[in-house]
Amino acid sequence: METESLNRKNSSRKSSIVNGNGDASAKLTNGDADGGDGGGEVTLKAKMSLLNGCTVIVGSIIGSGIFVSPTGVLMYTGSVNLALIVWVISGLFSMVGAYCYAELGTMITKSGADYAYIMETFGPFMAFIRLWIECMIVRPCSQAIVALTFSTYVLKPFFPECAPPEDASRLLAVCCILVLTLINCWDVKWATAVQDIFTYAKLLALFIIIATGMYQLSLGNVQYFTFENTDTKVTSLALSFYSGLFAYNGWNYLNFIIEELKDPVKNLPRAIAISCTLVTVVYVMANVSFYTILSPDEVMGSSAVAVTYAERAFGMLAWTIPVFVALSTFGAVNGILLTSSRLFYAGANNGQMPEILTMIQIQRFTPTPAVLAMALLSMLYLTVSDIFALINYVGFATWLSIGVAVLCLPWLRWAQPNLPRPIRVPLVFPIVYLLATMFVTVVPMYASPVETGYGILMILSSIPVYLVFIAWKNKPIWFQKTMVSITHFLQKLIMVLGKQTKPAQV
Length: 506
Description:
The chain contains 19 helices and two strands. With 506 residues, the protein is mainly alpha-helical.
């Protein structure tokens, strides 16, 4: 992490708060891909249109959540009507957060999203904690959940009377991650094309479910829409939001790759508005559709709600829904991998992760080392089997760190009021968001102390890592030489260069 070249690069970085149209075209400047004159630079290209931006957000949000979370939300609310209210509020909560991120994203047009915002507002220590939470807990864990859901739905038609074998599910999840890793390493256009295609597939699946649900409503199947058995405990309500908000997780993913978005000042807020509105409507209507046929007991007893619904609604064609759900989750794994690798890249650019992660493949112009790192961490989480415990675990870390990122908005209004702000959000929005964040993070500490306790310990583990690898500048010369040797070996192995073509030195 601490090589002389990295320090020279960080010391010469431009002012980190920038404003502009994000036309950071990826190219080699003052040199060719081979670093012919020693002065070349490899950067990411701005290739993504508004449509690509919308599909990244929709594709990242609509993954396993809508097909897993109905059970989790109902488990803690007790009644169908309260569950639907939780789904609506979760969507509005996400929209408010996304609106706040629109101001931050157009003011600080750098990849890394909330990591970049916290870095500029509260400094490197708080930013590293956010980076640690996201890279070590949230993203790999979320990707493992979605990949496992993908494999479960793919295998379900072959095991109609029982759950698919656990080992088979995990192996197929690994295959899913590896295939998408290859695509993301090969070309950004391939990755966004996969995102576009599979986003359309998942929307088609949900629209089929919604259409049949509306037909069932027209027949008067509303017997399950009641407040009967409602759980009125505040702690249960807070935990229900973890499952609901998990399904909406991904609304901020476009901010992580803003350097690759064309004209982000115009396209970022548009993509957020279109995507979040569409997803909220689709989610609420899909849940309404589920409950036109399935009783609360059936939903609670199902590990694959959409499959159970299809078996009741489509008869011989029930196999089509698991296929569409598998496509949905496949696209979601791609969305998480596409955006998460850019977070590794942003962290490494700030000297808070190994230097190799700053590097771009010289022929494909993709952050290959960062993509590979994300894939390896995700596969480690496939050893965990309790999906709902993982959701609560991820929920606590996610909303705590996103709350800190939203706090950057009022803080920067006070500390740096003259910064250019293409979008200016009324302060009531971040205040409401912060209050809601306190509710969904503080209350579960009492309701599920073990899970939140592990989450807090994982967050606190970032402190010694920061002190040893980041804050400690005068490391032994043997350590620095070892890091440079490893970096050189990996550069040659995967043919990558940093923003400077001059080799790392001690």
